[in-house]
Design goal:
Blueprint: H1 2-22, E1 23-29, E2 38-43, E3 50-57, E4 67-68, E5 75-76, E6 87-93, E7 99-104, E8 113-118, E9 128-130, E10 142-149, E11 154-162, E12 180-187, E13 197-198, E14 206-215, E15 218-225, E16 233-239, E17 258-266, E18 269-276, E19 282-288, E20 295-296, E21 312-316, H2 317-327
Antiparallel strand pairs: 1-2, 1-21, 2-3, 4-5, 6-7, 7-8, 8-9, 10-11, 11-12, 12-13, 14-15, 15-16, 17-18, 18-19, 19-20
Length: 328
């Protein structure tokens, strides 16, 4: 019996090592000033990252003309007006192996997010703008994050939009900047989308929400307290349903001026990557097993300078090899 147990353990270890050798990771990226397009980092262990040269999709939609500010009624020219923008690229792999990408198409004046799909992360479908906030009183759709829920078989896209100053709470007013709330839509086919709904309201300005599924009926929402100055850090909320309701915010973590969290599971750890953009822009990471206690692991990671707000997707070594061959 003891020999059988040892053989089983050895088999499990060998199988795990073999599977690890087949894995690789792509980290979607963009570079300021966000007009060049979709770029990638790659890693074999999810901790040490290298850049892949070149741009894999140039932005072709959004940010084209002045817009009417829905709060003031005045005409405004967006940042980089006349030049297409791709910021905050978020990707997920569906059950059929298709990669689905969403991104921010403008700093302001946009009422939708960008969408495209790919089978290989190299060749992308025609870009489309999904107008989720056309009928809402807002001037922006920021940092859409895409999440696939196996139980419902829905793709969820969560983003942040500015709310009218008349809706500001006392907690909102503790910051000096414009205030946002997370919203969401869902789809099964990327042809029809449910009407936008507010996803979570912690009572203060918050952006950059990222959904994590730990187990069945066990979800975490990681997002940024966007009140500035004096806040601008990260926190978590919990729910037994992807659509909530989510709990009150947990204790804040991460340094001030952190944003763009994304999460990847490595063994028993959840690694939370984020962009610390002041006093100097750099990528940081924390490790957690419960999303309540966090350990800084900056000494365990390496991320190229200039990498900005993206998400991580697991790929095969063969898929990565094809991507590297395509650009090198």
């Amino acid at each position: 019996m003891r020999r059988i147990t040892i053989l089983i353990l050895l088999f499990s270890l060998c199988t795990g090592l073999a599977q690890a050798k087949k894995k690789a990771y792509i980290f979607t990226s963009f570079r300021e000033p966000s007009v060049s397009g979709l770029q990638y980092l790659y890693s074999y262990d999810g901790l040490h990252w290298d850049s892949i040269p070149g741009v894999f999709m140039k932005p072709a939609i959004g940010n084209e003309r002045p817009y009417t500010d829905r709060f003031t009624g005045k005409e405004v020219s967006p940042t980089y007006c006349g030049t297409h923008v791709l910021r905050d690229p978020s990707v997920v792999k569906g059950p059929d192996g298709t990669f689905h990408l969403v991104w921010t198409t403008a700093w302001s004046g946009s009422h939708g997010f960008g969408y495209a799909s790919s089978k290989d992360l190299i060749h992308w479908s025609e870009q489309r703008e999904i107008p989720v906030m056309e009928d809402s009183c807002t001037n922006n759709v920021w940092a859409p994050e895409i999440f696939y829920d196996e139980d419902s078989q829905y793709y969820y896209i969560v983003w942040s939009s500015g709310i009218h100053p008349s809706r500001y709470t006392d907690e909102d007013r503790r910051g000096a900047n414009a205030c946002h709330r997370p919203y969401f839509t869902k789809t099964k086919d990327f042809k029809t989308f449910t009407p936008a709904q507010q996803f979570y309201d912690c009572g203060f300005n918050s952006i950059d929400g990222f959904i994590v599924k730990r187990a069945k009926n066990d979800y975490v929402f990681v997002l940024k307290d966007n009140r500035k100055p004096g806040f601008s850090d990260l926190f978590c909320a919990f729910s037994n349903s992807v659509e909530g309701p989510y709990s009150n915010p947990t204790q804040k973590f991460a340094p001030s001026y952190s944003e763009g969290p994304c999460v990847v599971k490595l063994g028993d750890e959840w690694i939370i990557y984020f962009d610390q953009y002041k006093p100097a822009q750099r990528y940081c990471a924390y490790s957690t097993i419960d999303f309540k206690t966090f350990t800084e692991i900056n000494d365990r990671i390496s991320v190229p300078v200039g990498h900005k707000h993206g998400t991580i997707v697991e790929v095969t070594r063969k898929q990565l090899k094809n991507i590297l061959r395509f650009r090198r």
